[in-house]
Design goal:
By secondary structure, the chain is an alpha+beta fold. It has a single domain, classed as 60s Ribosomal Protein L30, Chain: A. Helices cover about 30% and strands about 30% of the residues. The protein has four helices and six strands; from the N terminus they run E-H-E-E-H-E-H-H-E-E. The chain has a four-stranded mixed β-sheet. Strands 1-2 form a two-stranded antiparallel ribbon. The radius of gyration is 14 Å and the shape is globular. The termini are close together.
């Protein structure tokens, strides 16, 4: 696979994303459904704590990627949906820290939504990975 990161522009370096990622000849793709901060018991953990939910959501994402033989560095697109956009933007350094720790520079979307599938969820993360 050949990957070319295109044009991070003004905020890309600070926020850890690319405006575009060109993938030529990938051998494998992984499309990852929304991941949230679910504890081992299946319940949403860390109610009201956006930073802790970011951390656990990324942990769950890394677990899923790993089960398919991928790593966070293979993620080429990520989408973050939140019911509390001001809280997530104020704590976005938690997201950029997770991306940096995983050597991940995806294209990205951050969107505020009215509701997620569980009222205790503050965010949900979707991803696309390629190798």
């Amino acid at each position: 696979m050949n990957r070319v990161d295109i044009d991070p522009r003004m905020f890309g370096d600070r926020l850890g994303y690319e405006r575009a990622v060109l993938i030529e000849r990938p051998e494998r793709w992984l499309f990852v459904a929304g991941h949230e901060a679910r504890g081992d018991d299946g319940a949403i953990a860390h109610a009201g704590d956006i930073r802790a939910q970011v951390s656990l959501s990324f942990q769950r994402l890394r677990e899923t990627l790993g089960k398919a033989g991928f790593a966070l560095a293979d993620v080429v697109q990520i989408r973050l949906f939140t019911v509390d956009l001001p809280a997530l933007t104020a704590n976005y350094d938690a997201v950029t820290a997770e991306l940096a720790a995983g050597d991940c520079r995806p294209t990205s979307l951050l969107a505020g939504v009215d509701a997620l599938s569980d009222p205790a969820m503050l965010l949900e993360i979707e991803a696309v990975a390629a190798q």
